């Protein structure tokens, strides 16, 4: 099963947007992520609808942040992306009448629900400003080598 990397990719883009002077076009973002501009426009539209980015038309237009990084959490972006499933593993429904399958599914459901609650809580505690500060620390340390 393929991983859904939209959250990490959009966090990456948003940090770049904060550091970039001016708007970033869908084409520039697509080249950065090695994807299609249509995919970027579709994904950014969800972030725009949630109020985290805005789009500008015309020459010099593109995507810009609509609020400062310290006002956006990782959870905010996760929710704006449509709350994608956070785990690739899950229960099966091959034979719902099978008592073994029921027992396995119940155990997995409980564990996954608990793990997801922890992850969601943590995503709500981290802002994009925290990520940018971590980048700054790493960049500064690299310069000191």
Automatic annotation (TrEMBL):
InterPro entries: Tscrpt_reg_Rrf2, WH-like_DNA-bd_sf, WH_DNA-bd_sf. GO terms for molecular function: DNA-binding transcription factor activity. PROSITE patterns: HTH_RRF2_2. Gene3D superfamilies: Winged helix-like DNA-binding domain superfamily/Winged helix DNA-binding domain (1.10.10.10). The lineage of its organism: Bacteria, Pseudomonadati, Pseudomonadota, Alphaproteobacteria, Rhodospirillales. This is Rrf2 family transcriptional regulator. One of its GO terms (cellular component) is cytosol.
């Amino acid at each position: 099963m393929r991983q859904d990397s939209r959250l990490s990719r959009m966090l990456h883009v948003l940090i770049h947007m904060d550091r970039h002077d001016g708007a970033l076009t869908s084409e520039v973002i697509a080249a950065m992520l090695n994807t299609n501009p249509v995919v970027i426009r579709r994904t950014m539209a969800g972030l725009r609808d949630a109020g985290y980015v805005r789009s500008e038309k015309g020459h010099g237009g593109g995507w810009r942040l609509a609020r400062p990084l310290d006002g956006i959490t990782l959870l905010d972006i996760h929710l704006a992306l449509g709350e994608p499933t956070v785990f690739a593993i899950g229960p099966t429904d091959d034979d719902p009448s099978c008592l073994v399958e029921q027992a396995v599914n119940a155990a997995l459901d409980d564990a996954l629900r608990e793990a997801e609650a922890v992850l969601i809580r943590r995503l709500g505690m981290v802002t994009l400003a925290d990520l940018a500060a971590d980048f700054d620390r790493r960049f500064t340390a690299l310069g000191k080598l």
